[in-house]
Design goal:
This protein is mainly alpha-helical. Helices cover 82% and strands 0% of the residues. It is elongated, with a radius of gyration of 20 Å.
């Protein structure tokens, strides 16, 4: 199972679409940072804005950032996992893999863990980059570290559930149908 997980992780790193997603992420973080800078530009020691106004702006901007980040992550999950089992079944690779002393569930769990680890790392980077950018640009986030960790775990729950359903769909349907199922679910 660990070998399947490593192979899946390497396969995901070789996909060209993931480079597109990383490019979209960079563009999003740059634009999000510029938007935050412009929003909090007037927050200087000489000009103190109303604390409630700053808190409302902060929560709205962080919510918008996390919403768009969840969209990027969902796109990454669908791209990474929709064809992973269906593509192997259609091309005949799965027949060669299952000849070895591997159980089917080990292959599926290995693929889930490989893609899941990549999604977990990417989600952590994106979640904490949005929070860090917000704090660096002057946002006042009234959360403790434990609340941020709980928020990240809840933020991660959606992509992992989407991954599980997409892998299930990939084992039952073709790549296109599994992709449509995952996008409709999201």
């Amino acid at each position: 199972m660990a070998e399947i997980m490593k192979c899946t992780f390497r396969e995901m790193l070789k996909k060209k679409v993931l480079l597109l997603i990383l490019g979209l992420t960079a563009i999003f973080l740059i634009l999000f940072g510029i938007g935050l800078r412009e929003t909090f530009r007037f927050q200087t020691p000489q000009i103190e804005l109303e604390p409630l106004m700053v808190m409302v702006a902060t929560t709205q901007l962080v919510s918008i950032g996390l919403y768009f980040a969840s969209f990027i992550i969902a796109l990454m999950v669908v791209v990474a996992s929709a064809g992973t089992l269906a593509g192997d079944i259609e091309s005949g690779v799965m027949q060669a893999v299952l000849v070895k002393p591997l159980k089917r569930w080990e292959v599926v769990v290995g693929k889930f863990l490989g893609i899941g680890l990549m999604i977990t790392g990417y989600s952590a980077f994106l979640f904490f980059a949005i929070i860090g950018l917000s704090l660096a640009m002057g946002a006042r986030i009234p959360f403790s570290a434990s609340n941020l960790l709980l928020g990240y775990l809840l933020f991660l729950l959606g992509p992992l559930l989407l991954l599980a359903v997409t892998l299930w769909g990939s084992s039952r349907f073709s790549t296109l149908n599994a992709s449509i199922l995952a996008v409709m679910l999201y």
